[in-house]
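== Folding the chain ==

***
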Amino acid sequence: MPEDRKRHGLVLPLTIARNLTLPTLRSMARFGFVSSRREKAAADASLRTMDIHPRTPRWCPEDSRAATSRRW
């Protein structure tokens, strides 16, 4: 867990795929538009490299947080 979670943590409203590719979005963009094909390929590669297995790369951490807070 990073010490400064606000600076180095997840952006909760974004999907896992988007969180993984945020640092490299500029390299996936052309004329200011992000290639969804490049973003998906980069996210899939990162998930394999880090051995992360979300239900889907389109899963949003904020959804899980809301569900968890409702249980209590």
Remarks:
- The CA atoms of residues 60 and 66 lie 10 Å apart.
